[in-house]
Write a structure and sequence with these properties.
- The complex is a heterodimer of chains A (about 110) and B (about 110).
- Chain A has about 110 residues and is an all-beta fold.
- In chain A, about 0% of the residues lie in helices and about 50% in strands.
- Chain A is globular and about 45 Å long.
- Chain A starts with a strand and ends with a strand.
- Chain B is mostly beta strands and about 110 residues long.
- Helix content of chain B is about 0%, strand content about 55%.
- In chain B, the strands form two sheets. In chain B, strands 2, 4, 5, 6, 9, 10 and 11 form a seven-stranded mixed β-sheet that branches. A four-stranded antiparallel β-sheet of chain B has the order 1-3-8-7, with no helix packed on it.
- The chains are: A mainly beta (about 110), B mainly beta (about 110).
Chain lengths: ~110, ~110
């Protein structure tokens, strides 16, 4: 079965600074990888996804992520954060024919002025 | 884009009563619907998977008689929390798989008093 680890529980970043959120997965083959963002009391919004092809994936809101098979990682980055980026971020991995997603524990991002 | 409408967004019910949560895929057919539970500051925990016209598959530890799932059509799935108790208070989120991707509802905050 697949699993996901997000090592950072909480990250605080200054507005305008760069942001990187780490995600490591465990799966025998190439998984489907996702990053979602959740604002308080809301559902999840897809930022980007990787299925195959180019390992650098561009998403919405200026986010990008890079799939590194050798490191089993799919880290999320943004060059310059905005106060509105403060939220909870989840990495998820899907694999197999049952379409189930496994979520990481999440990383809370706080943006300070 | 694909939209999943989840209702109600908030519900307060008395202990011992039942509550129904609806998820509708508005502009696509959801071959599979997933139901998650999320505790404060925690990740999403998959409760069950449902496919249209067949019985739901529950994750280990989830009481199928307490959390009744019906997936009567390709656009509608419901979760009924039966004989609700305060420990069932949580945030419930549905996710529809269709058109090659996952779309999440906006979630339901259930409070049992």
């Amino acid at each position: 079965a697949q699993s996901v680890t997000q090592p950072d529980i909480h990250i605080t970043v200054s507005e305008g600074a760069s942001l990187e959120l780490r995600c490591n997965y465990s799966y025998g083959a190439t998984p489907y990888l996702f990053w979602y963002v959740q604002s308080p009391g809301q559902g999840l919004q897809l930022l980007l996804k990787y299925f195959s092809g180019d390992t650098l994936v561009q998403g919405i809101k200026g986010f990008e992520a890079e799939f590194k098979r050798s490191q089993s990682s799919f880290n999320l980055r943004k060059p310059s954060v905005h106060w509105s980026d403060a939220a909870e971020y989840f990495c998820a991995v899907g694999a197999g024919d049952d379409y189930k997603l496994s979520f990481g524990a999440g990383t809370t991002v706080t943006v300070r002025a | 884009g694909a939209v999943v409408s989840q209702h109600p967004s908030r519900v307060i019910c008395k202990s011992g009563t039942s509550v129904k949560i609806e998820c509708r895929s508005l502009d696509f057919q959801a071959t599979t619907m997933f139901w998650y539970r999320q505790f404060p500051k925690q990740s999403l925990m998959l409760m069950a998977t449902s496919n249209e016209g067949s019985k739901a598959t529950y994750e280990q530890g989830v009481e199928k008689d307490k959390f009744l799932i019906n997936h009567a059509s390709l656009t509608l799935s419901t979760l009924t929390v039966t004989s609700a108790h305060p420990e069932d208070s949580s945030f419930y989120i549905c996710s529809a798989y269709g058109q090659g991707g996952y779309t999440f509802g906006s979630g339901t905050r259930l409070t049992v008093v």
